[in-house]
Write a structure and sequence with these properties.
Largest sheet: 8 strands, parallel, barrel
Oligomer: single chain
Radius of gyration: 22 Å
Amino acid sequence: MGIPLLLPKFSMGIGDRFARQGNAQLAAFIRARQMGFEIAPVWNKSNREHLIVHSEPGSVRVEADAAVNTAGWTSPYFVDADHIGRTTVEPFIASSDFFTLDVAESIAKPPEGDDLHRFISAAEQYRGALKVPGIEGALDVSIERIESIGRKYLRAAREAGAIYRQIEDAKGAGTFVTEVSMDETDQPQTPMELFFILAALAWEKVPLQTIAPKFTGRFNKGVDFAGDVGEFEKEFSDDLSVIAFAISEFGLPSNLKLSVHSGSDKFSIYPAIRRAMRNHGAGLHIKTAGTTWLEELIGLAAAGGDGLQIAKEIYVQALGRYDELCGPYAAVIDIDPKKLPSIGEVEHWSGAEYADALRHDPACPPYNPNFRQLLHVGYKVAAQMGNRYLDALAKHESVVAANVTENIFERHLRRVFIDE
């Protein structure tokens, strides 16, 4: 086997619902590189998103390769099969070199056979006051806690192993990046839980390069973090300490790093993430997705004319299909229907008024996070417009692209990786 495919220290997932903004997205990473910051772009799209917009996984590879070739990008880049499982991974195998193994549904399912007994026996050596370098005090590890963690997470670790081996059998070891995602669940994982989750994944021989736990607070789609920033920063820092310790303790890949899902627009915690990374000398993978789709709407609105009309129609339809569109995302949105603008109000908006309400700028009085979240999950409406929507993107490409690039660079890459 040759040199394993490695994810660089810093990387960011960039979703693109309609596969039209690859050049504009990559332009933001080029600007960061020109400033001396190497961040690897990772084009990601989930099975759910493909189903909604009626696209195929291979289209993400086509988009990424085309953008890279056009720009002459010579640094690493990746195509992520986002949030896949055993039943959904097959169509992604040929075109992806990054796989996010989503095992959230297996959390809290009872372990099978004597798995729990063997897990407890292997983990018993850590019983007592476990000192993890970088964490103040010690983790109070008891047999009861080990058993509780095993009951909750062992089945998920087993599932990650099964998905990983399914991909490995098809592509070969070392030819892809593995991420394990446990963020789409009810409760955050503590640093102690993360330690034993990593132990279980190591014993499953999953060579994960990034792990996405669920953090304290709410990570709603397309809007800022809701929660205690100080509590998040401590948890994030402790998790980095756990990862560094687990790498040496279990022989996990040396580039293993934290992944922050629904990471777009979490402006209030970016300074905390940046401080923790620098204090620990750690890497980061942060995933964004729907934010590019929203920038398309902002660009169409700002273009005026038919672009603005399409943007308005999408909102009107999304409002009328509220339950249908919001249902699948209920755990990651928080919309107050009373604060959504009326159809009549939006019909009278100028392009600038629409854009100001949608663009994530909390200092701008018209900004409406409820409006933004509804449109975030409303891409199905645009998909059903078909060529009418795609033709509008092409017609107003320059305006749309400028918004996409500015959003990724100024609000995300700069704030997460560059600003002091």
